[in-house]
Amino acid sequence: MHLGVCYYPEHWPQERWKTDARMMREAGLARVRIGEFAWSRIESEPGRYDWQWLDDAVDVLHEAGLGIIMGTPTATPPKWLVDSMPDMVALDRQGRLRGFGSRRHYCFSHAGYREQAARITRAVAERYGEHPGIVSWQTDNEYGCHDTVQSFSPAARDAFRLWLNERYGDITALNEAWGNVFWSMEYRGFDEVELPNLTATEANPAHWLAFRRFSSDQVIAFNQMQVEILREFSPGRDITHNAMGFYTGYDHHDLASDLDVLGWDSYPLGFLEMFRFSDQEKLHFARQGQPDIAAFHHDLYRGCAKDERWSVLEQQPGPVNWARHNPAPLDGMVALWTLEAMAHGAELVSYFRWRQAPFAQEQMHAGLLRPDGEPAPALGEAQHAADIVAQLGNVGQPVRQAAVVFSYDSEWITQIQPQGEGLSALWAVFDSYRALRKLGLNVDIVPPHADISPYALVVIPCLPIVPETLAASLESFEGQVIVGPRTGSRTIDFRIPDELPPGPLQSTMPVKVTRSESLRPGLEHAGDGWAIARWLDHVEGTMEAELVAKDGAVASWRAGSRRYLATWPLGAVLDEVTSRAVSEAELRAIELPDGLRVRRTAKYTFVFNYSSHKVAIPEAIAGAPITGLRELAPARYAVFAAD
Amino acid sequence: MHLGVCYYPEHWPQERWKTDARMMREAGLARVRIGEFAWSRIESEPGRYDWQWLDDAVDVLHEAGLGIIMGTPTATPPKWLVDSMPDMVALDRQGRLRGFGSRRHYCFSHAGYREQAARITRAVAERYGEHPGIVSWQTDNEYGCHDTVQSFSPAARDAFRLWLNERYGDITALNEAWGNVFWSMEYRGFDEVELPNLTATEANPAHWLAFRRFSSDQVIAFNQMQVEILREFSPGRDITHNAMGFYTGYDHHDLASDLDVLGWDSYPLGFLEMFRFSDQEKLHFARQGQPDIAAFHHDLYRGCAKDERWSVLEQQPGPVNWARHNPAPLDGMVALWTLEAMAHGAELVSYFRWRQAPFAQEQMHAGLLRPDGEPAPALGEAQHAADIVAQLGNVGQPVRQAAVVFSYDSEWITQIQPQGEGLSALWAVFDSYRALRKLGLNVDIVPPHADISPYALVVIPCLPIVPETLAASLESFEGQVIVGPRTGSRTIDFRIPDELPPGPLQSTMPVKVTRSESLRPGLEHAGDGWAIARWLDHVEGTMEAELVAKDGAVASWRAGSRRYLATWPLGAVLDEVTSRAVSEAELRAIELPDGLRVRRTAKYTFVFNYSSHKVAIPEAIAGAPITGLRELAPARYAVFAAD
Amino acid sequence: MHLGVCYYPEHWPQERWKTDARMMREAGLARVRIGEFAWSRIESEPGRYDWQWLDDAVDVLHEAGLGIIMGTPTATPPKWLVDSMPDMVALDRQGRLRGFGSRRHYCFSHAGYREQAARITRAVAERYGEHPGIVSWQTDNEYGCHDTVQSFSPAARDAFRLWLNERYGDITALNEAWGNVFWSMEYRGFDEVELPNLTATEANPAHWLAFRRFSSDQVIAFNQMQVEILREFSPGRDITHNAMGFYTGYDHHDLASDLDVLGWDSYPLGFLEMFRFSDQEKLHFARQGQPDIAAFHHDLYRGCAKDERWSVLEQQPGPVNWARHNPAPLDGMVALWTLEAMAHGAELVSYFRWRQAPFAQEQMHAGLLRPDGEPAPALGEAQHAADIVAQLGNVGQPVRQAAVVFSYDSEWITQIQPQGEGLSALWAVFDSYRALRKLGLNVDIVPPHADISPYALVVIPCLPIVPETLAASLESFEGQVIVGPRTGSRTIDFRIPDELPPGPLQSTMPVKVTRSESLRPGLEHAGDGWAIARWLDHVEGTMEAELVAKDGAVASWRAGSRRYLATWPLGAVLDEVTSRAVSEAELRAIELPDGLRVRRTAKYTFVFNYSSHKVAIPEAIAGAPITGLRELAPARYAVFAAD
Ligand SMILES: [Zn+2]
Ligand SMILES: [Zn+2]
Ligand SMILES: [Zn+2]
């Protein structure tokens, strides 16, 4: 694994660049990521390119021995470009402009902008495609950041109509598929279809799902356009893009299939603060991050990536500027996060960013250097991590134990139709992942078309659309299976299947869901130390009731190695079902103490302490560590030889 | 009373229709409600009518012995119609389009759409007006659903100006009436008046009240237009419309005066979840509904309806799709709700809907059948209810005990000017109704112009505009009277009356309100087991202080049979004042246990158990029930012969 | 000090005016404020002036012996004027119209409206400029009320571009100053700059700060235009304007420099309800107002005003209409508030308003008279206050003890970039003020350029931009100094200074902030009875740790008479640091009981009881009061001769 850093030479005087490059190397960094917001410096006037400064920067970095990851600058088109075609920006769901003045001010469907993005990509690729310092390319930056995948512009509407025409062929097929007879929503032609926003009340969920798919496809096409240009002008270099945390605006399985390496941007403290963790967790892990956040995304994006090649393109190095509250990580966390990425198989961890810029939107975002150019606390941690990374070398293949199945349309469906406030497929997956991780297991997060044969246990927490391939692979799968609520509950066009949920999975388990309830928080059916909460499926079939509440409501059903969880995968009931299946799968579970997490590779067993107190590593992980202690201080880790 | 069901033949294959009709009859249903969203199937292209399918459906249903309630399809104009006049849709208060893609996408003031609505109404009425299967008509569907009465479109603005001209005659009268000298808001002509939205800060409350009245009048006129056409082409059939729960967007007294029967749509679980009940109540009654929700609307709409003819046009049969959380009713609740409607005098209870559609917006809304065509739990309950309904026959006239006075402009006024956050005339009425119902009383909810002579007690919880007719009938009324805060506090044009509140009621009680305070929750004046909260009127006059807080603040004043409640009608202080007045009215009060409710007719006494535990019926209701037990299980009811 | 009242003769029949004037005089009032919303009555048609009624009103009031404060009517342009140039209204941040129908419906940058405002100002000034009854002028009314300083209209955009051009001279300077290289935000000319709203994600904070400065400058220029006209036509009369509570939309230091007297509008109960006090405080002081609200603004605006000449132009007399909840003040509070303004040096307290209008937006706002013309409770209190005011005469110069430094750009910066949710410079100042006031001290709130030599203690709670003048005056200042977090953390153009925070203050204290954390509520470092919360600066330098938390985190640093507070000025840690500095400053502190407050002038010591229970005045204030008792009932005050 390499370490790297994000760098903006255009922010600093040219005379500083050599010092920076030297300091990077001294800190053990091998990669530097540049260029992705520099359009206005590369082309300050239409067609007037200024390459000199960037040539110089590339040379300085290359000569210092750093491998360069070059970004295309398409996330930040300059003002003159926007002024030349003002309709290139997106409109939000309320119809308001999302104009110039920050970043990501473009609509993916605007043909004119797509041409301009191709032009600048070609210009950069031509200039540096064969430069020996360039080791890989990044397309754009964080597609979808600031909720920018969906655009409600005229350009998007026109493109959506074409996309629908291509998908459905004739309008009767669309009307039939969506059930538009309901409420007289039938169209006579594709040019009658509008975007699903600004309707008097909610639009047809099938309409929304199509729009979500379309919006995702526009991102994929925009990215493909860049990938093709880069492959032409810079053959042999890896192409990557940086995904984000808890983000499902586009289908990452699709995107990754066009990339060599999938990257992501890891901000454990910011994510803890901004996403749906409890206030108690937000306090308990305020300076570490909840212990599954980083690992979840490592495993999610490894599961998306071609050949499981993935990296961390941005690693939080200190306080950030964008969360509601922005504390500093505990001393040691930056190194711990780095080693944890390694344990999950990253190719690269690149810190964001080299030096804190004293101006503009991210002035309160820490770097490895302070704004005054002196080392910030993270620099020493990066250096420490670099030493350990070098010492450990290749970590070997991941150990396969359990798989959790996720598809992006699952989350789109639960967002479009939660049925119970806040119920989310993504978070059902996260919670299922966490339940397994608390037992010390390796968990892969895989798409529905994945090969599940290597696993002893497969969990499908909430997968409304079950492709036939998954139904088929489950039929021949011999391990344990847990299927959660809403799985198999929708056809490809957002209809309830004729045979009722779980649809095609009825071939692998004898269950039919005849009625579903969503339950307000507090409306529970208490069991023995667990409870049915938030959701309850009533079923028919021949499965046996396994977990039965005191009032007779059934939380989970089983038939041999198959379990159907009839309530939302959450809390103690999830832990109970998970541990039963784990035990029958004969996986080596360890009840981990609060904040401890384990990751196993062919060569090593890694143990990480996310808690804010000292924790002894359980005896089940035997022997003396290669690095670290058996009693781990907060924000410390240990590495053992694999047993 | 009849039972019925809502049915969408256009959703299902024609070959299924006969089966459906037979199953309806077997379940004891006599009525079927169809057609109200079928415009795109009736007229798929401008002027091209396709009657065949609907002719067939009507015949199949009629031949099965079902009486048909036919709806006009004006709530869902097809896309081609909207495209032919895009300005027919409403704009919301923020000026945003409320476009096509769901339903109710029209502005009541758009003359072009009103013509088109008349045209389609005439076409349907001509076609089926004399068909023997048609027993009644429903106009449109749920006027105002999704907050669609108020439109801020140019069409609405122009119509508002005409309406004002008609009401005020000259602009000086309007300026004077509204007090437009304040803040230089004076107009020189009606064409200078804008809609009251998008003002720099809040508009004149008189401006808002006029706009609310205008908006209501537009609904009434739209409905009248349809009623006239239906009367012309289908004489002798009843005309109805389905009102909603806790909804005050238009004046239902006005609407009902043009109808033969007023219907409403009863969703006790959805309403509990979505309206302002406490979290505790939402949990306690999650699968039953708070026990006064259904009854309140039965009595409210009976009070609106001509000759007290009313029905339930949609009855919740299971989980719905539109509340924040959507649990299933307890077994038995569907039957209980049905019998309760009977006890309150309904002509019809029609379940919504026959079969759960597996597509579009309401795919998670239960029916009597599941999506796969098999019986859902509610089908059996409907059948049971049909048996009991048949057994009981005519229930006889309601017993008159107490009346609560409500007018729609009361709620408009408290919405426009709450003065204390969340204070609402509608909810003051609901809470007063509940206080009486907990004492086992029959309560009528009546308009200010009602004949109050049959009652022993009249409660006026919050009626800012007191018409002279009410002041006059109170002067000669000999029963007990409770008058609540803000009553008589406004003139017809939203001014404080010269004589101060309670305005014209000073002729019936010697009290003048000189100062009103609104109090934040928690700011209370404690009395003996009760408290002054949320509101406190300071008064002059010769009434005697009846309920005096420990610090001397006066909660209620009395003079003979008249009481003035100087605090908000809420909680223990409301119970205390109510029970004193009930006792002096010599009404037979019963302190009902939690969740039990009673309704008396000339022939029967009905008892309903809304609680989730077993409850013994109080001894005050003596003897053996005709149906049911003296100890009621949850979701069970008993019927006694009237004593 | 004079007492006065706001009066709207145009609301009442002319035959009542004499009665009103007589009653005012009988109540001891000497001033009457009129005219500020009367444009539609002065000029009912374009160019047609109707002066008669206003001439009469002025004469009636003058003849009764009242001095008139005449307002220009520019806050309420009439409809015909708006219709003649519809683009004169502001647009809000979402791009929505802020149209006619209430007040303040104009954009400060609209040249056409500025001309019209000048025209009507000139007309009124010409008419009454030399009238002997006119003692002073008020420009417009409450600039910025209803959030009307910022406008996002085309007029504002164009004016902003000119303003930027004037400030930065060439666009490269602006790009450099703002750091626009970040995210390719560079402009090629001023006409490429947009307003900072409707950007895809947040705009550059430097962009926002410039827009806030520009928006403030537009207010100042609009006011200057009126001031110049008034000085021309009415020389020798004072010119004033009424500022608001907790309001920072424009720079009041700038505005006040063009006025003779700065007024403000004091609504202690409304402000308590609407601003960020705890629920507990909102209940505890519901009918008094939190005891520092009025005093804080008295001292803030005295610090803004030229020669410290200030007044209360609107004093709450009873319940208002605009807060979430609107209780009545305790008996006595109106008099107490009046005397407290006197104690802080007001020239005038003018009650708002004479008689409650029964119509339009403020119909629920109390006056000295009820809507029916009878005395409301406040009339008697005003009369009582008038007697005491007369008895006390001139109160003498304020005693100088401590100063708190505030600048308006401080609050703009923390609003633009809170970094931790809700952190605010204004409230840091308020809390620091309160901490000193609880010790019985006189506190001046001063701008950064103020002369600080008279004070024994200077507190700078949060002043991101530290002008060189302040750094210089601190260098020679010999008293105690407390500097709070974020002070000196930004340059004039919203950049982190090269030398890191506290920037120029490093010349007066040896400290450099190397890292700042913001902490979610609950994430605390406990000390001995205090805690570090919400913010933590990590520092370098040679200051000595003074308050150290149990875990070693440092709350405050000191070096001789200088203290650096490294956490947010809040709660017990603020009290602890404050009381240490106060003690070293040898100021006479008194630990005041709950709700008691003290104010000292050269001649008197005033004591006010804001609590709702009886309180004994501490022995430290010795002797018998001139008025009042040593044991103060709720809402009562005492005045002692100065010791
Ligand atoms: Zn290498
Ligand atoms: Zn019949
Ligand atoms: Zn005087």
TrEMBL record, chains A, B, C:
Domain Beta-galactosidase trimerisation span(s) in chain numbering: 401-587
InterPro entries, per the entry: Beta_galactosidase_C (IPR013739), Beta_galactosidase_Trimer (IPR013738), Class_I_gatase-like (IPR029062), GH (IPR017853), Glyco_hydro_42 (IPR003476), Glyco_hydro_42_N (IPR013529), Glyco_hydro_b (IPR013780)
Any single biological process term in GO: galactose metabolic process
Beta-galactosidase C-terminal domain: residues covered: 595-628
Binding residues annotated for Zn(2+), in chain numbering: 107
Pfam families: Glyco_hydro_42, Glyco_hydro_42C, Glyco_hydro_42M
The protein's enzyme class: hydrolase
Keyword vocabulary terms for this entry: Glycosidase, Hydrolase, Metal-binding, Zinc
KW ATP-binding (keyword) present: no
Matches recorded under PANTHER family: BETA-GALACTOSIDASE GANA (PTHR36447), BETA-GALACTOSIDASE YESZ (PTHR36447:SF2)
Similarity comment text for this entry: Belongs to the glycosyl hydrolase 42 family.
Protein name: Beta-galactosidase
Biological classification of the source: Bacteria, Pseudomonadati, Pseudomonadota, Alphaproteobacteria, Sphingomonadales
